[in-house]
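Collaboration report, partner site 2.

Our partner group contributed sequences for two proteins of shared interest, and the home lab folded both. The records are reproduced in the order in which they were received, starting with the first partner submission.
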Amino acid sequence: MTDPLFTFAVFTDTHIRAPEGDLSSPYAVNNKANARAEVAAALVAAQEPALTIHLGDMVHPLPHMSAYEPACQEARRVFACLEPNLHFVPGNHDIGDKPHDASPAGAVTPEAVTAYSGQFGEQWSCVDHGDCRFVLINSSIVGSGLETEQEQFDWLEEVLATDKRTFLFSHYPLFIDAVDEDEHYDNYGLEGRARLLEVIKRHGVEAVLSGHVHQFFFNRVGETKFYCLPATSFTRQDFAELYNAGPEAEFGRNDRGKFGIMLVDVLADGHRLRFVPTGGAESDAVVDMSQRKPPAKSGLVPFMRHAWYQSRDLPYTGAMEEFSRKRARNDYPLLRLWQMGIETVRTPLADLARPESLRRVQDFAATGLRFHMFTTSMPNDAMLALIAENRDALAGLEIVQVEPDLVRVKEIAKALMKVANVPLYVSRAATSADNAVEGQIYAHNVWTGYRYARRAEILDALADTGLPLRPVFAVGWRADWLGKIGGLQDAFEHRGIEGAVAVQLMTGSPATANFDDDYIVESVAELVRGRTRHPRVTVMLDTFETLDRGYNPRHGLIDRLGNLTPAGRSLTLSRD
């Protein structure tokens, strides 16, 4: 694990209200915002960051409301533990909405800017630390036509003209799904977005961090990474439409798995984000306030069975979006992989063939994630070209044997070896037809991996090919995982090879669910503890996201809302 040069903290959307209460919100969960902000501020302070940046919406009452000033004073009290190295980005609640015909609140005005500056300081600013420059802007005035809009762009050109690494902070994200998406409540207008993107590209900004949407999103434009960060106060219930399950409390507004702060480690050759959850806690007593370290690497390679890359159109539901259709995607799988210290995932090779999934493969790879991809057939020339172009994103290629002999496997392997110098794995499409027993119930089922009982025969056959093929064996639920992994370690070491094991969290029947969280947690912990004893065996875990319907239902490492399951949370804990 690379040690950072320094670490800074970012949190956003605290939405603090006047301590005596106010009339700024009809939602019950908003009454929890002040206590949740105190927990978040204390958690940030416990990390002792080099500096802290609040991405806006410090308060909930708008500048024209009588509750605005007392809410701001309460916010400064809550954030006092972070002074003097705390810096503020104005949010739309702090300074007024961006100009938009269908905005549900008042747009930014000179009077609102004056009110904000009297409470939190300049509407744009920058601060240097080490070899980095942190640039904070007022996103509400971009596209406003106010004189200050041009003043801010002129200032940006000056402060970004530096040899220092630059990080830009904006309350509104420039976009949340695609750089050319239509304007809606949660992004920049097209003209202002294009103008700012040109400035960002020309000056080589390393990263742009934003708030406002109360959800996590990750994008890239060129070499610049764009992050939208979760809130500490509440989740936006319009985005609950992204998830494959019913919403959490208050129709999705109180999704406790998504609250937290972000630590950003600045490295010599980049940066990494570390999400520290608060769980929506309203008291320090239930949050670990200790110094958080980067997660230990779990060594697990989970099966990404769900479409982890898909965007979808959200309903225009009023409140925020009455006249536009907003497009977004669930990026929590990426955030959770970071949290769990998972560096490689298993997906179909077909994920390189679709533009939507290919873009996300490349985006994930830009953060350090790698892909173990599998295929059952010979890739065509177009696919071979894609493999060659994206070889740096690949941790391995797996050929699934679907014929009795290895002739086809050898042909595919030779084709793959010509375009990518990555480890080649071979597994088998195992089916229930192999194990049919007269007098027993028959269930249609298919899974990945050779049978452990045939390991000597399989290893001999692979050795006879003369190719560097790494075998993948399957071990079933409650099947002495560590004992079999240990047996494979011995067999691989004896032959001087490496291989993998596909560990199944599903039961033996597609009609039976495995929701035994206690056993899954202990089993996953056992796999991680045994990693150092079995260095030649890559452990692939089936599965990543919970399957709560269909065939072989089972709990995974995240649930259908993108939150960590008990097994997933166990991987975020410190490990020796």
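Second partner submission, folded after the first:
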Amino acid sequence: MGLDEDALEYHRTDPPGKIEISTTKPTNTQRDLSLAYSPGVAAPCTEIDEDPTDAYQYTAKGNLVGVVSNGSAVLGLGDIGAQASKPVMEGKGVLFKRFADIDVFDIELDEEDPHKFVEAIKMMEPTFGGVNLEDIKAPGCFTIEERLREEIDIPVFHDDQHGTAIISGAALINAADIAGKSLEELEVVFSGAGASAIASARFYESLGVRKENITMCDSSGIITEARAEEGDVNEYKRQFARDLPEGGLADAMEGADVFVGLSIGGIVSQEMVRSMADDPIIFAMANPDPEIGYEEAKEARDDTVIMATGRSDYPNQVNNVLGFPFIFRGALDVRATEINEEMKVACAEALADLARQDVPDAVVKAYGDEPIQYGPDYIIPKPVDPRVLFRVAPAIAEAAMESGAARTELDLEAYEEELEARLGKSREMMRVVLNKAKSDPKTVALAEGENEKMIRAAYQIQEQGIALPILIGDESDIRQTAANLGLDFDPQVADPSVGDYEEYADRLHELRSRKGITRSEAGELIERDTNYFGSVMVEQGDADALLTGLSHHYPSALRPPLQVIGTDEDVDYAAGVYMLTFKNRVIFVADATVNQDPDEEVLAEVTKQTGKLARRFNIEPRAALLSYSNFGSVDNEATRRPRRAASMLQDDPEADFPVDGEMQADTAVVEDILEGTYGFSELEDPANVLVFPNLESGNIGYKLLQRLGGADAIGPMLVGMDEPVHVLQRGDEVKDIVNLAGVAVVDAQKE
């Protein structure tokens, strides 16, 4: 099937459309229903009647946006009417929810008269925290937005105007920087004089472009003062009339620094591009076909052509989804009365700044694993970059507070953490650990320091103040890679091949001489194997923690730390633990990486160490030792081991948290089973530490929970070592390295 057929099938699959309403509170019992509706619902109604602002406390108003259209200017389809526009408005709701966790009612009004349209929206003001106007033709859209901003007390935003303006404005900031040109001196030409073009031109002024340097062209050519005096242009176009001779787009583009296309495809030739100033900036944003094709524009000249389009299949996509979800997120969270110019500028500047930062691996993978780095082909962030939420929304909130548009004040540092939590429980849990790490950073040695991911992770670890990273490897290679990546930091490097590390070789020989390693072999291992080097570095106290394993099999990466550092003096066995985060639950799974067939003593030790780890995440542990048997329902050696381990732990004063077993997995995690059938259990609430009977079941279990249960997995985290060591999985992303560095620092703080 083609794209159209696929899209039709996508939309009609049961249930039809793309959105639904779901409940946010329990509705399982008679009491639940009496709270949700009659008679309990009268209480919040009374409170809101006495103080209307309580609607934000007792209803969904504060997280609800109305996406409103009359279908008069839908995408490239034109005036198709209100009902036919509904799939687009539902789609807008999907984007609001997906990128900023904002709920939406889409409202399609069969009304062309701007004044009646305004009156309809005004009557719905009590319902919403904000209104997103969409796909309304000019010049009526200007009238509608202007009146609503004056007459209602919640944020109103016409995305077709301001979304394109803000995102292309962010691109313009960076394009000018790369081209070495100042915004004040740019000569800017617009092709198109509709709502988005006029809003963009106005916004560029707010960024610093001078109005006298903006030339706007409509279908009749350059908008001149002569045409304005003749009444040939409307009042909105008239503000950009210039005292220039009449001419066409080709005349306007000659010598221009910037071309902004918001018109129709194919109207710009290579010759017109060649007539522009050095290193031209071309934003050809007509959809689906730009004013000039990407390759065509690039090939027109020998100097740097910085090109952006509205398409996803070329670099620098000007996509409004980078703006409106996060603008409304920040505006809603401070209960803003409007979305003003200061908030729009803050959005553009935040996006421009984000494009200059290192790009997460997940974003790179989403775009074909091609390198993404600030430059002519990357001047604005990618729409799927999760950092946009907690960079842009706080910038919007701060600008609203500073400009007087906010009705409530936020602690911006705490607010950023709340936003991260919206992206998933795993981010919320990691924020606990990373904040602890930042309170007292430690030195973390990164074996495999020449690896690009390790270098990028070291940059982020240092930039965020999580730890003091030491990259182990060839210093010249590391510094060259950092420079090639455009990372502005001076890494601390330990180069085994050039430094004086004879004492490390002596120490390794001392530790392993009775295991068959000669002094010469110890020297070779220190010089050539960064795992041994890093292990001795930590063992000698020259670093507080070690991360390794990014390019090694787990057992081979674990072997050097076990040989050199070993387990804690009161611990005989290390173990690998994964933290699995679900929407409303966190579970620690052990052992998933180390002990193949543990006896009861190992199981008990693993349980204690995993409980300690849970507390580092501010989770009070409740441990279940798992089996296919419930409390003796099956009796054999396999079921006795977890049963004996549970008994040992219950008698161990160091195990100061609830432990029970053996029990089946559903018994451990389902409250009704635990309380109903096994009310005698030591666990009063479902377990959050699950200890599997062997490595095989642990590894299978965590992967099934991750893949089928939709859990995010953090780890493996190594517990039981004498010094903090964590072994990464091959192929881990930079964020995984950063997260485990945070865990290692908290481990070191405990040491």
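Feedback sent to the partner group on the second submission included the following. The chain has 32 helices and 21 strands. The radius of gyration is 31 Å.
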